[in-house]
Amino acid sequence: MQIDMIQQLQEAIIRTISPETLLWILIGVFVGIVFGALPGLTATTGVAIFTPLTFYMSFEVSMALLLGLFCGGYFAGSIPAILIKTPGAPGNAATIMDGYPMAAKGRAGEALALSTVSSVFGGIFSAVALVLFAPLLGNLATKFGSAEYFAIGVLGLVCVASVSGKSIVKGIAAAIFGMLLGSIGMDPISGVLRFTFGNPNLSGGIALVPALIGFFAITEVLLKVEDFSDINTQNILKVNKVLTNLKDCFKYKWLLVKSAVIGTLIGALPGTGPTIASWVSYNEAKRGSKNAKDFGTGIPEGIIASEASNNAVTGGAMIPLLTLGIPGDTVTAILLGALMVQGITPGPMLIEQNYGLVASILIILIIANLFMLGLGLLASKMFPYLVKTPQPILIPLIIVLCVVGGYANGSSYFDVQILMIMGIVGFILMKYGFPVPPIVLGLVLGPIIEPNFRRALISADMNPLIFFQRPISLTLIILTVAILYFLLKSPNK
C-alpha cells in the first residue's frame, strides 16, 4: 500500500509539473489576484464564474486553474484593504487594522510585501498539513455512517450560519432555505419527484454551478449597481519600495507559524472560513505581543497574523472536502461541484483508492503559492491601477462572464434562468439582512444531511436514539448544541 502511494505521488508530480498545468496555475493565480483586488469581488466569485470553463479540461488542468484562483483571490483581498481601507473580501478585514495605517505612513510597498510573504507561508503550511492529516482523517472517516454524516453536516451549517452575519437566527433561517432549495428534484430514498411543479428541468434538482454563480456573482453585481460608485482615485495610496524591511516576516517567524496553525485548524472546521480565522489570529497575536498597545497603528505583526491565517484556510478547508465530502467554506463548496463534474466523489475512500488525485491537489497548492509570491512582489506597483478599474467596464464584463459560465454548465438556457433567479433572490435576501453563504452551504449540504438522516433512522427501525448511541455522532451533536447555546446567549445574536 505504501509503495503504491509513493508511485501515485511520483505520477502526480510528473503530471502536475507539465508545461500546460504550470501555465494554468499561473493563469489561475493571476485571475485570482485580479478578482481579489477589485473591491466587491472575491475568490468565491471568481471560482464560481470560471468553474464551468473547466468541465472539458483534464483533472490536473481544471484544478490548476481553480486552485490557483482560490489562492490568488484569498491573498489579493488584502490589496484594497491596504491601499484604500476597503477589504477585497471579509477575510481580509483584519488586515485593514495595521495594513492601511502602515501604507498611510508611506510604507504601502512594505505592507503589500508582508501580506504577500505571510499569505504564501500560510498557504504552503496548510498544503503540507493537508498531506499529513488528510490520510489520518480519512481513516477516521471510514468509521462514519449515516448518523455521523448527518451530524457533521448539521455542525457545518451551524458554523457557517453563526459567522455569516449579525443575526444568528437569520443565518440559520438562510441555511434552512438553502436546504429547501437542495430538496428540489428526485427524492434520494423513494425516487419521487418533489417541488418540480411539473417542470422537467427541475427533476434533477437545481444545478449547483449556475446557482452558485447567481448567489455569489450576480448578487454582488446587483449590490454594486444599487450602490454605484467608482473608487476615489485620490485616496489610493502609492506603492513605494516593496522589499523594504521584508526581514520583519522572518523576525516574527513564530507568529507566522502560530497564525498558519490557527488558519489551518479553523479552515478544517466545516462552514467557518477565512473571516473568523483572520480575526482569531489577529486577536491572538495582539494578546501575546509585547507591543499590544501598538496594534492598529501600522505594525508588521498585525498584517502577518491576519494574512498568514487567512491564506492557511485554503489547505485547511480542503481537508474536510477531500476526506468527508463536506466543504470547509464557500469556495470549496464550488470545488465540490467541479470535482463531481470530473467524475470524482470526495469522501473517505478517495485517499485510499485514488491518492494520486489528492497528491496532485497538494502539489498544485504549493506551486500556486510560489507563483503568488513572484506575482505579488513583482507586480505590486501595478496594484493601485487594478484597484481603480472603472465600474462601468467591470460590471458588464462580470455579467457576460456569468451568463457564459451558466450556459456552459449544461448548454441550457434554463441554467441561465436559474443563475439570474438565484442572483435576484440573493440580492433581495441580502437587503433584508439574510446572509448568502449559509444558503449556498445549505444547498450543498442539504442533499448530504437529509438522506443520511433518513437512512440512519431506517437502519435503526426509526429509533432516533441512533444519533446518540454512536460516539462520533454524539460528540458532533453535543458540539453543535454547545455552539448554538453560546451563540444564542451572546448579545449579538
Automatic annotation (TrEMBL):
Spans traversing the lipid bilayer: 21-41, 53-76, 111-137, 149-165, 172-193, 205-223, 321-345, 357-380, 392-410, 416-446, 467-488
Pfam family, any one: TctA
Keyword annotations from UniProtKB, A to Z: Membrane, Transmembrane, Transmembrane helix
Domain DUF112 residue range list: 22-441
Protein's UniProt keywords contain Membrane: yes
Domain of life: Bacteria
Protein name as catalogued: DUF112 domain-containing protein
